[in-house]
Structure formats: C-alpha cells, structure tokens
Design goal:
The complex is a heterodimer of chains A (189) and B (425). Chain A is mainly alpha-helical. Chain A is built from five helices and three strands. In chain A, 54% of the residues lie in helices and 12% in strands. The longest helix of chain A has 42 residues. Chain B folds into two domains: 128 residues, Rossmann fold (3-Layer(aba) Sandwich), CATH 3.40.50; 258 residues, Neuraminidase (6 Propeller), CATH 2.120.10.30. Classes of the chains: A mainly alpha (189), B mainly beta (425). Chains A and B meet through helix 4 and strand 2 of A and strand 13 and strand 17 of B.
Chain lengths: 189, 425
C-alpha cells in the first residue's frame, strides 16, 4: 500500500514537472506560513510542493476512478443491450468480443483496475446446472481478457446462475436480458 | 408421549362376500384400495385450515395406495357399492387444558369391528400431524407399507425479495423459515438424520455451502477453502456430502465428510458436472454433465469410478433423483414447449413423461417411499411447489405466494412426538 502510494506520488511529481507553465501554488494556509526556526523560504517551497503533490494525487485518483466507472459502465451497458449468450451457450458473440477488446485496452493502461466477472443465466433449466453455465460464461469473458494480455491475477469469475435476474418475467426478452455477464471493477492499489 | 389403542369398537358382523371383493383388489397389487372416510365429528368446536377429513383424504389419495370414498356419515350401502372394505372415522374433542383429543379409528365395513385405532392429545398446531400420523398407520395396517404423510419438505421461498429456505409438511402446511440472511439462500438438502439442512448461500457475494443445525440454530460455512461451492446432496447412509465446486469456470463434483470437513475431488472430467443425487444404497451418485454441450444424466460410484451415461432421449436432461425403491430415476427434460418431468430406468429405457402442456416443470424429487414426486412448476404464472403421485396423477399445488422452488424431501419420517399430559383411559 505504502509503496503504491509512493509510486503514485512520484508519478504525480513527474506529471507536475512536465507542466512548466503552471506557477507553483503558493496558497499556503496562514498559520503554516511563518515557522520560527527553519528558513521561511525553503519551508514555503516544501509546503507548496506538498500541496501540489496532494493535488496531483487527488487528480490521479479522480482519473482512475473515472476510468474505473467508464470500464464498468461501458461493459454493463453494452452487455445489457444485446443477447450476448444464446440459450445454454457460453460462447461470445462478435459484438461482445469487440467490446471486450476495448475493455482489455483500458485494463492494460490502468494496472490498478481489477475486474470480477459475474456470469448470469435465464431462469429456464435447473438452478444447479445454471450455476455451472454462469461460471462457464464468466470464464469465457475472463479467458478472452487473459488472451488479450490482461494478467489473470486481476480477473475473477463468479457465477450467480439464475439467482440474480436483471429482468423479471417469462418472456424471451426477459430471458435474453438475464443471459449476461456483469462486471464489478475495483481499484486495488 | 401417550398413545393407546382404542380397543374393541362396535359389534362383529359377517359379510363374507365383501371380503372377497376386497381381496381381489388387493391381489392386483398396483390398484388403489377403496378406502372409506367419514367426516370427523366435533370439528365445529375447532378452527382448522381445512376440515380433518380433507387432510386425511389427501394423505390417502396422494399415497398412491388408496382411492378414498368420502361420506359425511357412515353409510353401509354406499361403501358396499364402492367396494369399500374399511373406513376411517373419528372425533375431536377439546379438553380442559386447551388441548385437543383425537380418537381415530379404522373400522371394517362389513363387521364394524375396529381394525386399529389411535388416540392423540395434542395442542391445536399439532392436530394436522396427528391426522398425518394416523393416515400413515392405516397404510401400514392395510398394505404393509407405512405412508409418508408425516414427512417434511424443504424448499426455497422468496420472502421480502430474498430467497430463503423454508421447511414444512409434505402438503405445504406448517411452513417455517429456516434461513433469514438477506441474501440468496437456495438448494437445500436434508441431513439423513433430519438434524441439519445443507444449502447454498450468496451472503459472501459468491455461492458457498452452509449448514444449519435445527437443534442449535447454528449456521456454519462448510468449506471456506474452496472458491465457489453449491448443489449439495447428503448421503442417505453416511455423513458424506457430494457437491459442486466451481473454479475458473469449471464445475466438478467433490465429496466431503460433514464431520471432519475433509474434502476431495470426485471426478476430473473436462465437462461441467453438477446436480448430484445419491442412490438409495449410498454407493452411487447420479449427476448431470455437459460433455456433449448440453446436460445429460450420468451415474458413477462414490469414488468417481464406473461412470456411465443414463439418459439418451432428449437434448437437455437435468436434476435427477434416484427412487428410494431402486430401479427408477426422475428428472427434468427440455421439450419444445418447456421443461417436463420424466421417469426412466437406470439404463435410460422405459422413459415415461409425467407432465405436459403445463409451463416449466423442474427439479423433481422422490418422496422417501418412492410413491410421490415433488417438483416446481410455473404453470400458474409463478413458480410454486407441486406434489404428485409417482405415475404423474394427483398433481397438487402445496404453496402460494411470490415464488417457491427447489423442493427437497426429507429422506425419512420423524416419529410423531407428542407432548401430552393427558390421562390414560
């Protein structure tokens, strides 16, 4: 955790150095400015630098969070829009594969993002068999991301079988919406 | 616990001809025996969910061994016309200590002699159990096989949006919640001694098998070292549990001792295996595997050896249950119109369709005497639990409400325990 934070801070500093045009932030809180023993000059520089580091770290956090929710939203939205799995099938459709390629790109750029893939089925058939099927579906998504180059440590497949339907009802539309993979994207530093 | 036989009732009369008729029917074996049932007296002073003769009539009919002939009062001619040789009658009286006394009798029509009788002193909530117990006794007396009207079912009920395990009588009455955690709780299976139930819960955001002890109320996560576990099946003869372990999208069967909690993998197929169900002798298990892409029923011994395919007809065959009588299985199969219940022998022959044109019919399980099958169906729109006779007749819905699925029949019948402080005769 400490190490990761340090790397993030270093990263933030490099980032800060890169932006030459921006003047250092001198908005130092009043009570912090005059410190008796130490040279005032050096201190204010340190404080400014610290504030800048914090600000950049904050920005970086926001950016990762943005990427995280982008990845999650994109996968979930697109996964919900179309039938990604045929009944009793776990193979990916063309559209799913294209989408997953995008997802894999984001994951490779953002090493702190970890993805749990949840496999779901419609309610038809046995609940136990659907657990196995949901696992197969989740794994086919995970395997695609692994094949694309994402480390398997950052991926996990969980099956919910038919237990957590997204749409209620016994129509083909409801079934299709429930045959899906859902994603939980976490930031682990 | 005070049960006593009511001795010597009525006057002995002789009608030999009627006896002969009864014997002819009995010799045919498979045919249901006509059984008279006279409305129970004294019910005007007791508030029950249904009249006692309705409870008894269902018990006798569902047992598959009797064809009940119900009359408001004893009528010898009507019984003769229906070839009834024996009838059940009785009365309920309330006692001073707010209990109920049931006197139930099995009487020969022709002689009016008492064949067997039983007196129960019970609180209101045990009146149904007393009736079930007597129905089982009558079956024992007339066929040599004790009935299973006193047996219990567990199933999954959607309660306030969460799937919970409930336990109730075989006819759906006296249902009580066995789990309360606000998550998905499903796939119950009974411990052979009826002390525990094993089930799958998603309370940790993944499927894991838990046990709940009925005596202590303790809920225990059984296999924390295994990633995802579900679909438990408890052995009818040992403390072993067969279940599915899922990891990296691969589902295989494992076996565990529920005392030591030691686990080992049972089979290493590339196919996904699930829905294990034990043979009555505890040496073999049925399961489903998707070796050819869609699930079929297979059997293997309890060491993972001697694996063989059981179902050959139908594209999708799943959730098998092995008849406690031996040579038969029941399972759910996908037809063009939905899922239906089928039985077959263990070589995949003698395939018989038991449900049709009635929505999806899934997860069939045998009663402990092999005479009935419980299953879930959405024939009325929502999934509910049904019980039918093993030939597909007598389909009876036993649940109502939002959604009820996945019945699991207790493998044996607990003796009826009466906490009676009643007087002896």
């Amino acid at each position: 955790m400490k190490k990761t934070l340090l790397i993030t801070l270093t990263f933030a500093m490099i980032f800060a150095c890169g932006k030459k045009a921006e003047p250092p932030q001198v908005e130092v809180p009043a009570e912090e400015a005059p410190v008796a023993a130490a040279p005032v000059n050096q201190d204010s520089i340190d404080a400014a630098q610290q504030a800048e580091e914090l600000r950049q770290a904050e920005l970086e956090n926001q950016r990762i969070e943005q990427q995280r929710s982008l990845l999650e939203d994109m996968m979930n939205r697109l996964m919900a829009e179309e039938i990604y799995f045929d009944f009793d099938k776990a193979s990916l459709t063309e559209k799913a594969r294209a989408l997953l390629a995008e997802a894999a790109d984001i994951m490779q750029k953002e090493p702190t993002l970890y993805v749990e893939v949840q496999g779901h089925t419609d309610e038809r058939g046995s609940a136990a068999y659907n657990m196995a099927l949901g696992g197969k579906r989740a794994q086919s998504v995970v395997q695609y991301l692994i094949d694309y180059g994402v480390s398997s440590d950052r991926l996990k497949s969980i099956s919910f079988g038919e237990e957590a339907p997204k749409a209620e009802g016994v129509t083909e539309e409801a079934y299709a919406l429930n045959r899906r993979a859902a994603f939980k994207v976490q930031i682990i530093k | 616990m005070r049960w006593f036989l009511i001795l010597m009732f009525g006057v002995a009369l002789s009608y030999a001809a009627i006896d002969t008729v009864y014997l002819e029917i009995a010799v045919e074996g498979q045919r249901a025996i006509p059984l008279g049932l006279v409305h129970i007296e004294g019910t005007e002073n007791i508030i029950l969910h249904e009249a006692p003769h309705k409870t008894l009539e269902r018990d006798f009919f569902m047992s598959g061994r009797f064809a009940p002939v119900v009359l408001p009062q004893y009528n010898r001619m009507t019984f003769y016309q229906n070839r009834v040789a024996y009838f059940v009658s009785g009365k309920i009286t309330s006692t001073d200590d707010k209990q109920y006394e049931l006197e139930l009798k099995l009487i020969a029509v022709q002689s009016l002699t008492l064949v067997t009788g039983q007196s129960y002193k019970v609180p209101l909530e045990q009146v149904r159990q007393a009736l079930h117990d007597f129905a089982d006794m009558v079956s024992q007396q007339l066929t040599g096989y004790r009935g299973v009207a006193s047996s219990r079912l567990a199933w999954v009920s959607k309660i306030r949006g969460y799937k919970q395990i409930v336990v109730g009588d075989y006819d759906g009455y006296n249902a009580k919640q066995a789990t309360t955690h606000p998550s998905i709780n499903t796939m119950p299976t009974w411990d052979r001694n009826l002390n525990k139930i094993y089930f799958t819960s998603f309370r940790n955001d993944r499927p894991q098998i838990f046990s709940r002890d009925f005596n202590t109320g303790r809920v225990q996560l059984l296999f924390p070292h295994l990633d995802q576990t579900f679909s438990p099946a408890a052995s009818p003869t040992t403390d072993e549990l067969v279940f599915t372990v899922s990891k990296h999208g691969r589902s295989n069967l494992w076996i565990a001792d529920t005392e030591s909690l030691r686990t080992r993998q049972l089979s290493y197929q590339r196919a996904n295996e699930t829905s294990p169900a034990w043979a009555p002798n505890g040496y073999e298990v049925l399961f489903s595997a998707d070796r050819g892409g869609s699930p079929q029923i297979y059997a293997m011994d309890n060491n993972g050896g001697d694996m063989r395919r059981v179902t050959f007809v139908g594209h999708y065959n799943e959730s098998a249950s092995w008849s406690p009588l031996g040579g038969k299985i029941v399972y759910s199969s996908q037809d063009p119109g939905g899922f239906n219940i089928y039985t077959s022998d263990l070589a995949g022959g003698e395939v018989t369709q038991l449900t049709m044109n009635a929505g999806n019919n899934e997860h069939p399980v045998w009663s402990p005497d092999g005479m009935m099958i419980a299953f879930s169906s959405n024939r009325t729109g929502s999934y509910q639990i049904y019980v039918m006779r093993q030939d597909g007749s007598g389909v009876t819905r036993i649940t109502g409400g939002t959604e009820n699925t996945w019945p699991s029949w207790a493998p044996s019948v607990n003796t009826f325990h009466q906490e009676s402080q009643g007087n002896n005769p």
